[in-house]
Structure formats: structure tokens, C-alpha cells
Write a structure and sequence with these properties.
Low-confidence stretches: none
Radius of gyration: 14 Å
Oligomer: single chain
Strand content: 5-15%
Largest sheet: 3 strands, parallel
Number of strands: 3
Strand order of the largest sheet: 1-2-3
Number of domains: 1
Distance between the termini: 29 Å
Mean pLDDT: 92
């Protein structure tokens, strides 16, 4: 099964663990195929770079770049398709 995780789920999982981390572990364990686009990764990088997360990043001894490298290693990159007009 291919899945796309919302940025909020990924941020929570990477920074705090708990239930959102379990979703990420499904990709680590190859139970799902985690997919992302350049845009979704850019959004994730933007969110992780917010000032409000700086202290937490320091607490867990991680940088945004390192978290992005770790997360990107889990994903299969895909190209989004356009959706036609919805009536």
C-alpha cells in the first residue's frame, strides 16, 4: 500500500515519537510504501525549520537537515498528477 503522511504527523513522529512515530515505523518495516513529492518534502522542511521547534531539535540532538535526510531515505519520490475539473 502506498501512503502519504501529512506534515503534522511526520513532525510529531520525528520530534516526539509516540503514536505518529508508529506510522513512520510502518514504512521502516516495509509494511507500507511511503511516497512523497518535492513539494511535500519542501513543506516538511519548512515546518521543521520553524523557530518553535528549535528547542526540541536541540533536545533530541538533531538538525533539520539530518531529520530530512533520514525521512527522505524512507520515501519513494513520485510526480504528482493533475486532477481535472470537478463538477
Amino acid at each position: 500500500m502506498r501512503v502519504v503522511f501529512d506534515s503534522n504527523v511526520v513532525v510529531s513522529g520525528l520530534l516526539w515519537g509516540r503514536e505518529p512515530a508508529r506510522a513512520i515505523y510502518t514504512a521502516i518495516d516495509k509494511l507500507v510504501e511511503l511516497v512523497a513529492t518535492e513539494d511535500t518534502l519542501a513543506e516538511l522542511r519548512n515546518v521543521l525549520s520553524r523557530r518553535k521547534f528549535a528547542a526540541r531539535l536541540q533536545e533530541i540532538d538533531k538538525t533539520v537537515a539530518r531529520l530530512m535526510d533520514e525521512y527522505t531515505a524512507l520515501v519513494t519520490m513520485v510526480e504528482p498528477t493533475s486532477i481535472g475539473s470537478v463538477i
